[in-house]
Amino acid sequence: MSDKATNQGDSEETSLGAKKKIQGESVEEKEESLEACMGDSLDKLSTAFTESARRWEMIVYPSLFAFIILAGYGFFLIYSLTQDVHYVVEDMHKITASMEKVVVNMDAISKNMVVMTQTVDSQSSSMKEMVHHMRGMNMSMNQMRYDMSIMNNSVSRPMSFMNNFMPW
Asked: What is the pTM of this model?
């Protein structure tokens, strides 16, 4: 029994040692597989990040380039606008000088308009007199027409009788 017990104890120890070895190897394998898994995960993460970064580069760099071009064009437009405003200011100075001459001429025109108004007023009164005289002439012409009509009636009857005797 003791041999058996000893053998049994030895076999238990060996089985425990084997189990520990198996468990030890399992722990080591688990640590290695965990490290491998973490390494694979980090590798996949870095690959995904790199691909994502490339995709963003495809969007961001052309957008940045377009922004730089638009900013340059905006600067050019502002510069052109300031140049145009400069020309407008110069032209406004010329217009102001011309307007001063116009003001002087308008004063002269205003004075001439007063004289013209007086002249037109005198012409208007003369026209009223002419209308009055034309009415008188019209009445005289009407009277002459009437007198001619009477004379025509007075002369035409005897003349038509006399015309019968005339050879022509």
From this structure: 0.34
